[in-house]
Design goal:
By secondary structure, the protein is α/β, with parallel strands linked by helices. The chain is built from 6 helices and 14 strands. It starts with a strand and ends in a 5-residue tail after the last strand.
């Protein structure tokens, strides 16, 4: 077992020690004072307003590199979830390097973090997407998951629309598998199907000892099966992972009423139970899904 760490490397609150000791390290306003985020953008979701470190400042780069190096080498952290990265590219301020753009400021800070992290896995979260290219190994591909249908629906849309990124420019993180919460059994089927189809990182936020045997078996199967390169139709109702023995079919029902879908191909089996599924039409309850495996798919 190896430790992982949540870290918001670019932000600080006014009461923080780093803000009190190093005010010149932060993105500045027109008066040369540290720029509070709420003057130009969202101020932050906890202890606002936030202030953002200036990635063009050489001392900030040294600080970020040494901090993450210590966490990697002395603490043994091999995985860093880097949150609130957007503020490292905050607009409307002045930088130590007056010629730098906010994208360059962000990238210089991230380059320092990457040097410090060495071989650690870096996950970008709430990050400016394209400025992060080449600097992170994984990317949160949706908002935070919640065990409620409205949020599940919106995060599923975000994750499926970003399927093309996974395995090409980084590994997608569709957020965690959640068995606990207010999802109905049908909605849980939908949630697990989207996590499977997303093909990226698979993590759990549940209290594992409290999972039932059936729930733990499903989690184990998600992890053991590895990524499936699913391609969806434009309506995101049918996704296929073609190819040999690993062929899969993901059927999603976003509607508030039952859907009926046609299944064709030999050897259709339920992904979870391996039970045989006979060809023809199958019924999918509202807000639910079916995952099928095939020996060969047409």
């Amino acid at each position: 077992m190896e430790p992982a760490l949540w870290l918001a490397p670019f932000i600080a609150e006014r009461q923080s020690r780093i803000f009190a000791r190093q005010p010149s390290w932060f993105i500045r306003d027109h008066t040369n004072a540290p720029l509070p985020a709420d003057r130009v953008t969202f101020g932050g979701w906890k202890q606002p307003p936030w202030y953002a470190l200036d990635g063009t400042h050489p001392e900030v780069q040294t600080y970020l590199e040494e901090l993450v190096h210590q966490l990697r080498r002395e603490w043994g952290c091999t995985y860093f979830k880097l949150d609130a990265n957007f503020w490292g590219a905050m607009h409307g301020g002045r930088f130590h390097d007056p010629k730098a753009t906010r994208v360059e400021a962000y990238r210089r800070g991230m380059e320092a973090i990457r040097r410090g992290g060495g071989d650690a896995f870096l996950l970008g979260c709430n990050h400016p997407m394209w400025p992060s290219l080449g600097l992170i190994h994984g990317s949160r591909s949706s908002m935070d998951i919640e065990a409620k249908w409205d949020r599940l629906r919106s995060t599923s849309i975000e994750n499926l629309r970003r399927l093309w990124q996974n395995g090409r420019i980084w590994w997608n993180d569709p957020d965690t598998v959640q068995f606990a919460g207010d999802l109905t059994p049908a909605e849980l089927e939908f949630h697990l199907a989207v996590i499977r189809a997303a093909g990226g990182l698979i993590m759990s936020s549940d209290n594992l000892p409290q999972l039932t045997g059936a729930q733990f078996a499903r989690l184990e199967k998600l992890v053991a099966q590895g990524p499936a390169p699913v391609e969806f139709d434009d309506a995101m109702q049918e996704g296929r992972a073609p190819g040999g023995e690993g062929a899969e079919l993901c059927l999603l029902n976003w509607a508030n009423s039952e859907a009926r879908r046609s299944v064709h191909g030999p050897g259709a089996r339920d992904f979870w139970t391996a039970g045989a599924v006979h060809g023809g039409e199958i019924a999918i309850p509202p807000h639910s899904a079916r995952l099928l495996s095939f020996g060969r798919m047409k």
